[in-house]
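for the record, two folds in this file. i put them one after another cuz i was lazy. first one right below, seq on top, structure tokens after. the second one comes after a little note so u can tell where it starts
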Amino acid sequence: MTGHLNLLNFTGAGRATSSIMNCVVILLLTSSCLTWSSAMYTPSRAAAPKKLKYLLEPLVYAEVVGRRGDNVTLPCILRTKPSHYKVKWTKLEPGHVGPENIIMISNAQACKPYGHLGHRASLRKAHAMDASLQLSHLELEDSGTYRCELINGIEDENVVISLRIEGVVFPYQSKNGRYKYTFHEAKEVCAQQDGTLASYSQLFRAWTEGLDWCNAGWLRDGTVHYPIIHPRPACGGEMLSGIRSYGPKDKNHDRFDAFCFTSKTSGSISYIPGSFSFDQAVRACRRQGAELALVGHLYSAWRFQKYDQCDGGWLRDGSVRFPISNPRERCGGIPEAGVRSFGFPNKTTHLYGAYCYR
């Protein structure tokens, strides 16, 4: 391969000035672990002090895991039934103010779906005591915490279940340089790359799996963070490794990069070798009944299919990248697996192949 290589891999480091880093607050590993463990499958805090009478307490430290497009079941089992009751399923949104995000309300005779999740939700009803919720065709935004609540007007009870979408977090930077996106722009650019803004728990999990990135980026809740495994002078000096945080920022005026999250895709990636300009790469993919891949498509193939291709190729956003699952000296020289990047070359450059998606 030819060209100047800017290594934007899963453990690559962005650049940040020391003056910015002086403002950074580090989230120590202990507090991060508490945040992560809160996403596990546990009874809700309100129900914890008393023993449940009607609902079966879920297994401690269990969680429901699925990939985009999967069908999953969130368990909720009754021990016994009161004479009159309803079961209400709700998705709990962190920091959400306003009406609850109700998914479904049911009684012994009927059930009624609500909201954007309701049309993909149903009750399993495997037996007379089963109030488990089935979600079909999982989407990236479905990850989070769900509550099954038994309501009888006297002794209401609930259990809380976590749903984790298995996927990959990837940092995304504007072609015009770092720190160019407001919160709303970051949310939009992740969607354009077949992703969504990552949650804090998703970023934390990515950090435990090797994500080391020196540029701060927006998360789904409007806070700004960056993950550091190897402390270094350009990234906050000698502070401990962990998730560094700027805290909540102004969504309309403050500008940072984005941490996007994607999962399994329904299509497949292929590479066409050649020395194409951007427009030639577009046409090369179309001749094969495909289109240039998005950044999220490439990360998904790298994560779930162990895609490995030691050749830079155009993507639809105008960047040039290549996925490495088997690190070797001649493919970037970095010992960790990841998606490498040449940045955003001039689109008339005739140096790279094309990554196609169909």
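(here's the note) second protein begins now
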Amino acid sequence: MDANETGPPKDPLEDVNKLSFWMPGNYQRTVQRTPDSFQACNDIVTCFQERARVEKQYAQQLSQWSSKWKNITETRPLYGSLMRAWQCFFTSAERLSALHSNISQSLVAEEGDRVRTWQKDTFPRKMFYGFREAHDLETEFSRAQKPWAKKLKKLDQARAAYHKASQREQAASEREKAAKDNSALSEQKLNKIVKATESAGEDKEKARGKYEKVLEDVTSYAPKYMEEMEAIFDKSQEEERKRISFLKQAFLSIHRHLDVTNNESVKAVYSELHHTLMSISEPDDLRWWKNNHGPGMPTDWPRLEEWIPPLHKPKRGKKPKRGLEERTVMIGGVKVRALFDYVGEEEDELSFKAGEQFLKIEEEDGQGWCRGMKEGGVEGFYPANYVEIVD
């Protein structure tokens, strides 16, 4: 036999009445709402702590991806605006990584702590009784419902007595009918059965009267009972309203952290990335390659090069020192450009590369040497015929 067929079908109204708030003990669902709300706060904090870990892991993955491919692109043959566009993806990823790392920290440090603090303030505990709010509701509901529960119990007893009396009266009526149809039954026995039926009818009416009286008492007490229960329920509703309002604001705050679509930093990242991508220029990249690796590169084409006699200079240690009166110092100096590379052989000589510019600060001496000064204030001698004056 199917489990659903083990008993007669239940009256839907009976089930509804059993679940009704007004029935004894059913206020427990409202009382339980307080610890359930407390647990919901724990679940919310745990939920978004996990989301914070997801954000943190995503930030780390973005950073790792960016570092890996940034190094790889430096060894690849792309160049110019195309290379800048590719590398812009990595710069954007680093900025997004920082953003999602901040989201992770905000979910834990701001939102998690905010809910925890509110939870502690909203759900004070009572020694040995759990949450104070739940204990107070339980006490008030129980006190308000106690008289009602007694009256309902009395009503159930009166109803049961009336139904039982009705059942007995019906059974007596059926016996009377059967006796009248039995011609063999004596008059004495028939009269006894008739009197039993009349007695059962009287008992039924008495039970009905008592039932109606108890029902009237219950009905008259119902408004007071409802008023008291609704007043307590409204207090519970107000506390729940505050909780819903707070959690709504908490969810909206979490949404503001997570909704990167309205984040100005994210918009700037993708706006700059899009601008860089749109700046990819085929002509510019092709021109860069031509000038750096193609026919646009500068070249010293073959030309007649005059022979320059080697310069014989005396050892600097043997060169007599000149006094200040012998030195022709140039005020401000004259800018010169090196024609050839020169490596100084002694500490008081300058070294330079062909094309390098510096200042001549003393005129050429009789042995073909000038004194010059490079950037940074480095001074020294150099062969006069290794440079030319810059116009």
